[in-house]
Amino acid sequence: MNHHVIVGSGPIGTALTARLTADGHEVTVVTRSGGESRDGVRHLALDAGDADALSTVAAGAAVLYNAANPRDYHRWAEIWPPLAASLLTTAERTGAVLATVGNLYGYGPVDGPISEDLPQAATFTGGRVRAGMSADAFAAHEAGRVRSVEVRASDYLGGGAYAHANLAARAALAGRTAMVVGDPDQPHTWTGTDDTARTLVAVATDERHHGRAWHVPSNEPRPLRRVVADVAERAGVPVPRILGVPAWAIRSAGLGNGQMRAMADVMYQHTRPYVLDDSDARRELGLAPTPWTDLLDDVVATERSRAAA
Questions:
Q1: Using CA atoms, how far apart are residues 155 and 114, in angstroms rounded to an integer?
Q2: Where does the secretion signal sit in this chain (predicted)?
Q3: DSSP code of 290?
C-alpha cells in the first residue's frame, strides 16, 4: 500500500480517489475547502499553492496528482503559475511522481487528429498557460529533478463531469431544448472521466511511462447531436431540440465577461472537427475506453441522481 496525494476533488479527482482506495492505497485529497475524512480517505483544507504546506502533506507519498482545474478560465494566467510551481517544487522536495491531468488546449487549433507529437503551439492565453506548465514539468524531468508524467483528455463525459455533453444530456432528461456551444454536427472526441483516472494511475505508477504526455483512450468521435440522441435513447426519453450558439454570439458576450471571452478563445474546438489520436496509449499501455453504452448509462444515472437530489 502506498500513499497518494490528490490535489483537486472534481470529477477526475473523485474518480482517482475511488480507483486508488479500491486498490488499497492510502489517499489524501487536498482542496481549499477540505471535507470529511472517511473510508480511508483523508481530506485536508489547504492552499496547494503553498509549497511548504503541500510538501509536508506529500512527504513519503508515491505520487502527487495535479487534478486541479480552476473554473475561472479567464484567470488562468494568474491562478495556474504559482499553483503549478508549488506542485513542481513539492515533487522535487519529496520525490513523489508528479502526475498531471492535462487537456488539449496547449496544441491550439490543428488540422486532423491531435496526437502527442504535435507541438504545443497555442497562441491564446489558456493554451499558453497549459503549454508552459507541461514544458516546465518535462524540463525538470529531463534535468533529473523530478519524475513527471501527464495525461491529456478531450471534453469529459460521465462521472459528474461539468462539460458540454453532460449539460446537453441534462437538458434532454429534463425535456428541455439543449443549448450547445458551436456546431453540434462536428465530429468530436469525448473522454470518459474514469478512463482519465485509470490512464493516469497506469502511467504514474510505472516509471517506464514517465517523461511524456499520453492521450486518454476515448471512444470514436461523435457529433454532440448524436451524443444527445444516444443519451435520450438509453434513458427512454424523446430526443430534444438542439440549438447551437454561434461563435459570434460567444465573442459578443465576451466583450463584457471574462469567462465568455475565455470560451471564445476555444470556440475552434466546437466549430470544426476535434478528434483525439489515442493510439499510443492503446498500443503501449494496453488500455481501451469504457464501452460507449456504459458511458451513456453512467451519464443517465448521474444526471438522474443529481435531479433527484
A1: 13
A2: none
A3: P
Maximum distance among all Cα pairs of the chain, rounded to whole angstroms: 56
Q: What is the CATH number of the domain that holds 95?
A: 3.40.50.720
Q: Examine residue 267 and state whether it is found in any structural domain, yes or no.
A: yes
pLDDT digits (tens, 9 = 90+) for 206-249: 999 999 999 999 999 999 999 999 999 999 999 999 988 888 88
Kindly report the backbone phi and psi dihedral angles of residue 113, in degrees, each rounded to the nearest multiple of 5, phi listed first.
-60, 145
| In-domain check, residue 292 | no
Task: Flag the least confident range among 37-51, 92-106, 251-265, 284-298.
Answer: 251-265
User: Across-strand partners of 6?
Assistant: 29, 65
What pTM does this model have? 0.95
Under a CB-based contact definition with an 8 Å cutoff, are residues 271 and 247 in contact? yes
3-state secondary structure 15-82: HHHHHHHHCCCEEEEEECCCCCCECCEEEEECCCCCHHHHHHHHCCCCEEEECCCCCCHHHHHHHHHH
Residue 291 belongs to a domain: no
Average the pLDDT over 139-145 and give the result. Answer: 98
Which of these, 22, 16, 31, lies nearest to 1 by C-alpha position?
22
Q: Do 229 and 260 belong together in one domain?
A: yes
227 and 139 in one domain?
no
CA trace torsion 58, 59, 62, 66 (10° rounding): 20
Rounded CA-CA distance 203/81 in Å is 24
Cell of 218: 476515448
CB 178 within 8 A of CB 115: no
Residue in the structure block whose three cell numbers are 448521474: 302
pLDDT of residue 117: 96
DSSP annotation of 239 reads P
Residue 113 in grid coordinates: 487528429
